[in-house]
Design a protein that fits this description.
Keywords: Pyridoxal phosphate. GO terms for molecular function: pyridoxal phosphate binding; transaminase activity. The protein is α/β, with parallel strands linked by helices and 357 residues long. It is 37% helix and 15% strand. It has a seven-stranded mixed sheet with strand order 2-10-9-6-5-3-4, with helices on both faces. A hairpin with a 2-residue loop joins strand 7 and strand 8. It is globular and about 65 Å long. The structure holds pyridoxal-5'-phosphate. The site of pyridoxal-5'-phosphate has 14 residues, from helix 4.
């Protein structure tokens, strides 16, 4: 069976070495040695100033919205994983959708200003499939209207824009370290923020608001990563270069061999260095997509409809129409992409697609 992705498993001996440290320390959570080491390693690897690891990629979005969203209207993208809309509603804010660019698939920055009202407090945009939003235009709009910018950068591990980590853009960026993401801790995530005062507030929010055992800065929740999860992260991180090289080869093979006369893939943002995290293909119609999906499934190949449905159609998200996103969500399929996908498997996937479009 071939799925859309396959979690990377580091050599078990290397994972066990990390676990031995936990047994030696007799310390399982509450920001132990391994979590702090992982954060330091991530700062070096990614080139970011402040990072706090968390228990998944959803809680940092909730914390950011709790602090910056302030129960207001949040301008967001309809084309993302459900978490980027559900967190807005969960935090008692109102999602206001802005349609996406038909080629980059990220929020269409030229349509953002029309959606701003006196109630707007923040923009929550996704660097979907690791493809950067137009961060400069979004920053200019945010500055002009005094809005906060939160990036759901769940797919953006290792992506750089103009040579700088994508996590360094916006007031806050978040990432997911879920098993299906390119860097993972099984379950996990992180929050990045370059403003030290804001970072400190977000940081204490992830640990119940604790200042010390008996004193509290303010409201908080439990977003802590455990030592067991950090152990996985420390064992995976040294393989990121290898993982990225393997993915790059698969992407190059798809690019070369898929028949793009009736098929499209996303356009990468200029001046960015991408991470090969997803391979979306856009079919001409949903009927063609369903036919291709069925044929692939019959061969035990399971691409995923990332992302379907368009998030503006969720029953708790209001009733705005987003024609570009709805059309793309109905026609997009993410193809299997992981380093040890072999040539025979790739040829089979490509053959099925090229003969059914
Ligand atoms: C995976 C993902 C999340 C949620 O991350 P978890 O670690 O699963 O909580 C949020 N946003 C996007 C775009 C994602 O793909």
């Amino acid at each position: 069976m071939i799925n859309v992705t396959k979690a990377f498993f580091p050599p078990i001996e290397e994972y066990q070495l990390q676990l031995q440290r936990i047994w030696k320390n007799q310390w399982l959570t509450n920001r132990g040695e391994l979590v702090r080491e992982l954060e330091d390693d991530l700062k070096g690897y990614l080139g970011v100033k402040h990072v706090v690891c968390m228990n998944n990629g959803t809680i940092p979005l909730q914390i950011a919205l709790k602090v910056l969203g302030n129960r207001g209207e949040i301008i967001t993208t309809p084309f993302s994983y459900v978490a980027s809309t559900s967190v807005i509603v969960w935090e008692n804010c109102t999602p206001v959708f802005v349609d996406i660019h038909p080629e980059y698939l990220t929020i269409d920055e030229t349509k953002i200003e029309d959606a701003i009202t006196p109630k707007t407090t923040a923009i929550l945009a996704t660097h979907v499939f690791g493809n950067p939003c137009h961060v400069e235009a979004i920053e200019a709009i945010a500055n002009k209207h005094q809005l906060k910018v939160i990036y759901d950068a769940a797919h953006s591990f290792g992506v750089t824009y103009k040579g700088n980590s994508l996590f360094n853009y916006g007031d806050v960026s978040t990432c997911s370290f879920h098993a299906t993401k390119i860097f993972h801790t099984g379950e996990g995530g992180a929050l990045f923020c370059n403003n030290k005062a804001l970072f400190d507030q977000l940081y204490f929010s992830h640990n119940f608001g604790h200042k010390s055992a008996t004193e509290f800065y303010g409201l908080g929740i439990n977003g802590k990563l455990s030592e067991l999860q950090a152990a996985m992260g420390l064992a995976v991180l040294p393989y990121m270069k290898q993982i990225s090289e393997g993915r790059k080869k698969v992407v190059a093979y798809y690019n070369k061999n898929l028949d793009f006369s009736n098929l499209k893939t996303m356009k990468l943002r200029e001046n960015s260095d991408w991470n090969y995290s997803y391979y979306p293909v856009l079919f001409e119609t949903e009927e063609v997509l369903l036919k291709v999906q069925k044929t692939l499934n019959e061969s035990q190949i399971f691409p995923r409809r990332y992302f379907y449905p368009s998030l503006n159609t969720l029953n708790y998200a209001g009733k705005q129409k987003m024609p570009v996103s709805e059309s793309i969500a109905a026609r997009v399929l993410c193809l299997p992409l992981f380093p040890d996908l072999n040539l025979d498997e790739l040829k089979k996937i490509i053959d099925i697609i090229n003969t059914n479009i």
